[in-house]
Structure formats: C-alpha cells, structure tokens
Amino acid sequence: MMASAIRHLSFYPFVQPLARNRIRFRLDAADGDLETCSVVWWKRTDTEACTSVRMTCTGADGQYAQWSGEVMLPAEIHYIKYIFCITGHCGETAYYGPNGLMPERDKCGCFERLQVNETDVLQVPEWSRGCIYYQIFPERFSRRGDRAQFDDWHAMPTRENYLGGNLAGILDRLPYLSELGIECIYLNPVFLGDFNHKYATTDYFRVDPLFGTEADLAALVDVAHGRHIRVILDGVFNHTGIHFMPFQDLMEKGAGSRYRNWFYPKAYPVRVDPACYECVGDYPYMPRLNGANPEVREYIEKVLLYWLEKVHIDGWRFDVADELDRHAVTGWREAVKQRFPEALLLAETWGDASGLLGPDGFDSAMNYLFRDAAADFFACGTLSAMEMAVRLNRLLMRYPPEITLGMYNLLGSHDTARFLTEAGGVQWKLRLAMAFQMCFPGAPAIYYGDEVGMTGGNDPLCRAGMNWDSPDTELYEWQRQWIETRKAHPALRRGDCRVSAADRETLVLRRMSAEDRLLVIFNIGAVPKKLDFAETAGSVDVRPHSVEIISF
After folding, report:
1. pLDDT score for 536
2. Spatial contact of 433 and 374, defined as CB atoms under 8 Å apart
3. Domains in the chain: ranges and CATH
4. What is the rounded CA–CA span in Å between residue 60 and residue 397?
5. Of all residues in the chain, what percent are helix, strand and coil, respectively (each to 5)?
C-alpha cells in the first residue's frame, strides 16, 4: 500500500457530523490501492467494546480515492476513539491512526471525537439542493414604463450606458421564467449605488430608484413565491462605493472621522485614489470595508436581516466572498440562521471553495471550477473526455455530498464571456453544455439570455439587453426540455454520480438513486459511436455532437 497517499484529519470535512448521533468519516488513499477499508471505533471508557463499520469508495479521480463510512449511535456521540483498518489487494492488513500506517494496531495511535455540538452539523437549505437558478442583471433584463431617458435597448453594452431595466420589468417576465422551469432568481445588486452594475453601494437600505422602490422589490418577491420561484439578492459587503455616507465622512474629516476604522485608510487626506485606502481589485471607486470592526459587522448584519424580514427574500449571494473576514462571516451566518434557517448563503469565489464552506461558513458557492471544465471540454475542445472525467471526479470529491448537490453550477455570468461566444458561435457545443449542466450534480444556473442564444465577450459585452425581439426559440425549447428532464429524474437532481470516458470524445455520466438509474452519454466527436456498457443489454448508438440518456 502507498502509505504516503493515505490521509485523514480529525476535523471537517474528514469528520462530518450529520446529526448529534451520526458522523461520516472520510479517508483518502491512492486510487485502486485498497481492497477494503473500515473505521473501528470504541468508547473512551470501554476499550474492549470495539465496533467496525465498513467504508465504501465514494469517489476516485485516477490518482486518489475517497472512502466514506457513517457511525450512528442511539444517543449523542461523545468521547469516542477511532482508527482505520485497511486491506490491500494482496491481502495485507494495516492500521491507520495519527501515528501513520502501521502493521500493528497498538502502534498507530488513535483519533478522538469528544463531542458533537448542534452547530457542528452542516445545515444546507433543503430547497437549494439541485435547485435551478436564473441570474438576472437588473439593468439589462426587462423594462416597464416610460424609459425614454435611457439608451436604446439594443445598444452596445458599455460600462457607462444605461438601458433602463427595472424590477417591474422583471415582474412582467415571471411567466416566462415559470414556463422555462426556473426555481430561484439570483439578482445582481439592486441597492442604490454608482454605475450600471451597482456594485459600488451608496445605501444598503434603499432600492436604487432606477430599478424602482422597496414596494416593487416586495411585489416581485411575493409574485415569484406565488409561482414557486425563490429570490436571492446580491450582497456587496466586502466594499462600498465612494458615495457611501461613512466613506464620505472619512474623506471629509480624515483621521478625525468616527468611521476611520470602517475602512483601511493608508494616507491622509483621503482622495479617490487607491494609494489612500485599500479597495477591491485596486479599483478606486470601491473602498474595502473593514469586516474585523464590530460596528461594520453589526451594520451588515442589520442589512442581511432587514431584507429577509421586509421583503421575504430567500437568501444572499456574497460578492468576493473569499476576501471577507471569516469571523464576520461566521457571525453573520449565526445571526441569519437563528431567524431564517432556510435562507441560503451563497459565496462568490473563482477557485476551490473548501475554505469558505461548512457549518461556520457559507452553504454554497459559485462553482467556477465546474464552468472552467465545461468550457474547456465543450466550448474550446482543449480537454479529452478522459481528462474531463478526471477533472469532474476530482470536483465531485472536493466537497461533502450535501454541499456538492447545492453548488451553483454556472456556464457563464456577468463576469465572463457568454458561453456561445467562447464556443465560437457553434451552437451544438452550447446545447451539449446545457444538457451536461442539467445532468451533473449540483444546482444548474442559467445566465439570462443564454437560453435564447445571446452572445458577447467579457464584461461589459456579456451584459447586453435581453433579446426579447428575436430569440432562438429552438435553443430555448432545448433548454426547457432538459430542465423538464432533470425534474423528471430524481437521479439527476439528487443521485450519486460517476464519470468516465468511453474514448477521447465520449463522456459518460452514471447517475443513480433509489428511484432510477441513468447513463448520460455525450459525444463531442464528428462521427457516430456504437458503444457497449455493462449496464445495458446491447449496443448504444450515439450520433455526432449529441447526447443520449438511457435508463438501466
């Protein structure tokens, strides 16, 4: 056995409490190295009464394998010790504990779990697992009323122009979203702020008048709920705009401002200059908030609770969550979950979100790792199916299954080029990516307009006015039908997943639940494939540039 590849740490996510009387244990090893693995545990006060629980291989990526097993007691788990008993393919048995892999049990030491507290248990909102999102950039989705003061709806999007989209316009389009099958709307910032994107907030307690009023937002949420569509808002809490009142006070009074410690000033007098204060991305119009300041934490907590209470939103997306003070995040989570346990806390990050998620962090994250893989395989063709399978299996092993099922799986956003543009305008690539998104574990997220074939390069070109006049109705129907397919199969929404490759151009997902078992086969090649699978009675024909879904 490859001892150097075996790993277990005695804390989350290797030890994941599922309830006060139930824990999931995880051990990593080299892929294909172990024949069996068991967790052996006993009460600290009763070393003779050991219980062995067989673990199963729940994931593998060609390099590492992940083994998982659950321990359940009739009462709360406390003061238990445990080790792992491992058998290799040649029949050799060894024991793994904090002292490493040992041939004799009494030499490997033992791990220990003293208590399981209620707050140790990961609580992800049930509704978010497998949920289908739709992201709306409010200024560019739909407009109602006399908007003559704005640019033409079809104008080239820039970082300066305004097209006049508003909340009332979004409300008018809820039937469209219902027909498509959307279950949750994610709105980019709607609060008073600078620029058309509103990420430079001026007042967190006021809806921007360009979008409407608080009553308009409440009406949108209420009608959406009536259509079984949830709504989450964008919370920009890492930074503000320069017209935010406390920052204005800092600029006016300098070191004498009572809000000096709300920010990170570097030099006085404070001018609109990144040399004078820390700002997000060194962008001078967005000064960073000091989340370590208790006053700032309390202020943001009030914002979070205000909109949950006043207009009954269903959660928050946290902008640049990986730059936020972690202790502040833990406090905000506690405040929100105490009163709104089903409110979703979604983090923005462009990389591995492991350090942001968990019982003291966020419920979910924007899964840009998923997007990168989908773009590389379907849009750009830079990955073979074998390489794609490795990347996806590694992604499935990255987070606990409860989190994986709620990860925000996007193909594009307001911060990326449109997927169809990245695919060089080749529509079958987008179609296969849409189907893949609906068949992979997680919560698929549609960026407004992708479903009707909108194109555009990176920001700001990806932020054009929604194409209501000449949508690609065939592409829309393809998207709608795959959403319908996802909803019809529990295996696609909640089932286990294994990813493999039949050849360099053919990717295979095996989705399995108690209710159904599916093979989903993607052929990105230009020739038809005749494939044999152990699960099927005969050959499966897959056309070029197509996807097949088969029950077994």
Report:
1. 85
2. yes
3. 3-120 (2.60.40.10), 130-239+289-492 (3.20.20.80), 240-288 (3.90.400.10), 496-551 (2.60.40)
4. 7
5. 30, 30, 40
Write out the two tokens for 382. Answer: 């830079």
Could you read off the pLDDT of 376-402 as tens digits, one per residue?
Answer: 999 999 999 999 999 999 999 999 999
Q: What is the pLDDT of residue 48?
A: 79
- For 91-115, the pLDDT digits (tens) are 999 999 999 999 999 999 999 999 9
Mean pLDDT of 19-25: 97
Q: Is the pLDDT of residue 47 over 90?
A: no
On whether the CB atoms of residues 241 and 279 are closer than 8 A, the answer is no
Read off the pTM: 0.96
* Segment 55-80, tens digit of pLDDT: 999 999 999 999 999 999 999 999 99
Provide the token pair at 451.
């479903």
| Closest by CA position to 58, among listed 407, 439, 517, 397 | 397
Distance, CA of 21 to CA of 500 (rounded, Å): 36
Q: Would you state the pLDDT for residue 442?
A: 98
- Are the CB atoms for 277 and 285 separated by under 8 Å? no
Contacts 24+ apart (CB under 8 A), 38-43: 38/69, 38/84, 38/85, 39/69, 39/71, 39/82, 39/83, 39/84, 39/85, 40/82, 40/83, 40/84, 40/85, 41/71, 41/80, 41/81, 41/82, 42/80, 42/81, 42/82, 43/79, 43/80, 43/81
Q: Is the pLDDT of residue 537 over 80?
A: no
Of 61, 348, 451, 505, which is the active-site residue? Answer: 348
**44 Rama class: left (phi>0) / alpha (psi -120 to 50) / beta:** alpha
Sheet holding 496-503, edge to edge: 496-503, 506-512, 517-523, 546-551
Angle between helices 326-339 and 294-310 (to 10 degrees): 30
Q: Are strands 22-30 and 64-72 parallel, antiparallel or unpaired?
A: antiparallel
pLDDT at 462 over 90: yes
Sign of CA dihedral 435, 440, 441, 443: negative
Does the bond joining 269 to the residue before it have cis omega, within 30 degrees of 0?
yes
Task: Report d(CA 467, CA 142) in Å as an integer.
Answer: 9
The predicted pLDDT at position 273 comes to 97
Q: What is the DSSP letter of 376?
A: I
Tell me whether residue 348 is one of the annotated catalytic residues. yes
Catalytic residue among 61, 120, 314, 319: 319
Secondary structure letter of residue 357 according to DSSP = B
Are the C-beta atoms of 165 and 516 separated by less than 8 Å? Answer: no
For residue 162, what pLDDT is reported? 97
- H helices of 135-262, in order, are 167-172, 174-180, 214-226, 245-253
Apex 548 CA angle, 542 and 550, nearest 5: 115
